[in-house]
Amino acid sequence: MTPTLRRKLEALAERREELERLLSDPGVVADNDRFRRYSREFSQLEPVSTALSEEAKAKRDLAAAEALRNDPEMRELAEEEIATAQARLLQLEDELALLLVPKDPRDDSDLFLEVRAGTGGDEAAIFAGDLFRMYARYAERQGWKVEVASDSPGEHGGYKEIVARVSGRGAFSRLKFESGTHRVQRVPETESQGRIHTSAATVAIIPDDDAVEEVVINPADLKVDTFRSSGAGGQHVNKTESAIRITHIPSGLVVENQTARSQHANRDLAMKRLKGQLLEAERSKQAAAQAESRKLQVGSGDRSQRIRTYNFPQGRITDHRVEGLTLYDLPNILQGNLDELVERLAREHQADELARLTEAA
Length: 361
Description:
The chain is of the alpha+beta class. It contains 10 helices and 11 strands. An 8-stranded mixed β-sheet has the order 2-3-1-5-4-9-10-11. It has a 3-stranded antiparallel β-sheet with strand order 6-7-8, covered by helices on one side. The termini are close together. Residues 232-238 and 292-303 have low confidence and may be disordered.
């Protein structure tokens, strides 16, 4: 670990001690906002303090074992303890380095999941439906709530487009690397010759975080249309034009919402999505600029980037952002068992961020 990274760790440990003192200050205890803010920061720094304490203990163990090396009767035992302590120190150094990677403030946010059929006609729409069901099943396994905001069914199944709000602890942190173009290779049900076709669908993961409220949109830049809702909701949806479609003229972005019973509520939800899309587009642009010279760009959020291929004949799924990330478990993954993919992408992103941090140091 470089001296610069070590100093950063020491500064974090000092900040934790300062927070410990502040949290016992009567003035802070009486101020709910400050106490809550300091408590959250204190808990985030606790793993750093714990790892540093364990590192100090491992160093003491190493020194004690090395002191026994000169005793012929204890030399064999000392060598074993030295090897154990050295391995532990290497492990702790890796853990401490990862703790320096800044936490994404959006990780605990809810999100909007948008899946759209791309090239491939009816087969692309069917694949978009497969992807949405995959994410919905994964969300169910995580205990998250999924609410469809709008959908446009395909003529032969699936969806031309479907948008849903996913809410639950850690939702964005688990799905944020799914944005991009997903490609499928399989024999469509409508293919009489048994030929494999290649189709695609795009996925966008847009965080529903506090920063969305700060986005300012000029009302003159909006075109708002109302239409009659379809789907669940009883007779009410067929009698009133409560659904809302908003077009942001400068960017060409179009959002709609039809799940709420009132036009006002649908407008609020659609505006929230629009602000989220505009904010995420700006963030993606900045991330792409920062990552331009980096080989690995997991999490760049570029929807045009082909990130994954689902090959049905071979039962194979390959993520193109990570070298060697190929799993022969496609049916299981499509049932919503995404943990292996999600965790591998998170580790790669951490390693990428740590490399960037080390270069900067």
